[in-house]
Amino acid sequence: MKKYDYIIIGSGPAANHLLFKLARTDRTDLVIENNLWGGTCPNTGCQPKIFLEGAVRPVLNTYYLTGKGVKAAAQLDWKTLIKRKKEIWAEFRAEERSSIESDQVDTVFGSGVITGPHTVAAAGEEYEGINIIIATGLLPHHLEVPGSEYAITNDEFFDLDELPKKAVVIGGGYVALELATILQAAGSEVTVLQHSEKLLRPFDQEYVEKLTEMMEERGIAIHLNMPVKAIAKNSAAYEVTAENGQKFETDLVIDASGRRANVDGLGLEKLGIKFDPVKGVAVNEHLQTNVPSIFAAGDVADNGQMNLTPVAWGDSYHIYDFVENGLTEGIKYPAVATITFTYPQVAQVGKRESEMAEGDTVRRMKLGSTFAALGEDDEEAELKVIFNKDGEVVGASEISINAGDDINLFAPLIGRKDPAEFAMNNLGFAFPTLANKLDVLFR
């Protein structure tokens, strides 16, 4: 039985960033992967999504600017775009596995099954590891309704050769609204079916409502409180039936109803490792499971954080410091910014206005009247910043075309009592950008 210092099940961001750290040591590592090397984010998640958003953005930008200095909106060539995407990703996938292999790092393609506190079986062999890291991420949730097999998920979406004339997107989170944005910009007739009364729950709901209005104005039909009862296939297309009996004819059904922990087949039950099938593997302040030699990191860890790539990085860094450097202090997560790649974007870091405590205050800045926003016809752009009673920045939300970039300004300011002084004295921002208006906001 071959022995390693670390056995990592999964090859996504959590695994990669732990390997980056371990490369500075003489530790031996084994990475086991049963799907796409690199994990969800670069293959079927945020990276291909932002790639497509790069083409969608000018289409929608020119749509709003038509008659305001632009003669006509750009048109998206779906077949050419997807062909280019496949070519780029084929190169990435061909190199990803070999890029992590070294004299210290071995890889195995197969499903890892934890057989003991220090052993993992994969591809017909058993391996021994001093430390075992579960970094398997999440899987798409599948609706439990008749005909659910007719729906695709984001796993298949990014390789669609043909653009559907009509598409029904089931869900109301990041994935649902981002894919709806892409499809509508490309020319599809899009319907969104959300089972509850709210969309994008982690975000400021005032800005989500503004986003919803703008999506509907562009022709996206959004139905709230519309749980799906069944999906059927007829000779020409599909039919989605809601619980209220309403029917929607479509050429494509996308199940974006959520994601769940990728824990199936890991052998957790046999070892008594505690987990929730949706939230993931239970961990302590050092990311250990109830079996101390076995850790969980990233989206599969039930760590109380949002499922974001920077959180996975932080998990990996903490495991490294705990095991290699004897760190005793539990993990502390910084404020991590998050964004929807819709049009406009909605971004968030720290507290939302709805989470304000007694003594907190909110300051708003209308960004739509700035020359930069006027030049892009981003008239709905707005920023709000939350301060606590001591004057510390505790949260920020923004809706704008550039919200994702803007919100990063506030991550290093979270918790500072001197945000204006710190920003103005230590950070020399380019002019004229939002950053140069912080002094106005902080007065």
From TrEMBL:
Disulfide bonds join C41-C46. Residues 336-437 form the Pyridine nucleotide-disulphide oxidoreductase dimerisation domain. Residues 4-313 form the FAD/NAD(P)-binding domain. SUPFAM superfamilies: FAD/NAD(P)-binding domain, FAD/NAD-linked reductases, dimerisation (C-terminal) domain. Binds 1 FAD per subunit. NAD(+) binds at G171, G172, G173, Y174, V175, A176, L177, E178, G258. It comes from the Bacteria. InterPro entries: FAD/NAD-bd_sf, FAD/NAD-binding_dom, FAD/NAD-linked_Rdtase_dimer_sf, Pyr_nuc-diS_OxRdtase, Pyr_nucl-diS_OxRdtase_dimer. Belongs to the class-I pyridine nucleotide-disulfide oxidoreductase family. Keywords: FAD, Flavoprotein, NAD, Nucleotide-binding. PANTHER family: GLUTATHIONE REDUCTASE (NADPH), MERCURIC REDUCTASE. Its cofactor is FAD. This is NAD(P)/FAD-dependent oxidoreductase. The lineage of its organism: Bacteria, Bacillati, Bacillota, Bacilli, Lactobacillales. Pfam families: Pyr_redox_2, Pyr_redox_dim. FAD binds at G112, D299.
